[in-house]
Amino acid sequence: MAFDETAAREFLADPRVGIFAVAAESGPPAATPVWYLYEPGGSVRIVTSASTRKAKLLAHAGAATLVVEESAQNATFVAVDLELVDVREAESADDRELASRYLEGEAIDRFVEMASEHMPDENVYSFRPTKWRFASMSV
């Protein structure tokens, strides 16, 4: 099976941890692991505190890159450049949607509670994918 952009979009839509990178004017980029939300053809969304280095750099750069990979059985990666298109204040429903992608049962409630208590300045950042790079070495 060919690994094309459609396959890359489906790969990105699976719940994985990505590395989110934002350029800095001086020094290395901010590159951190993130949970993200994505459905093929839609926007990529992350939820993070407005006070983080990546959020502050993003306000200036207006763009980022997300890299997601799987190397257990199939060496596969997707890297997508992202253009920032919207920022809004996060609600508990945003934390619940994100946590539901990665956690199950009571762990979802614990995550939402922790976010409410310890990350009061969260925003939802929405991005339009602008450039796709991908490869799969699966047999």
From TrEMBL:
It comes from the Bacteria. InterPro entries: Pyridox_Oxase_N, Split_barrel_FMN-bd. Residues 6-134 form the Pyridoxamine 5'-phosphate oxidase N-terminal domain. This is Pyridoxamine 5'-phosphate oxidase N-terminal domain-containing protein. The lineage of its organism: Bacteria, Bacillati, Actinomycetota, Actinomycetes, Mycobacteriales.
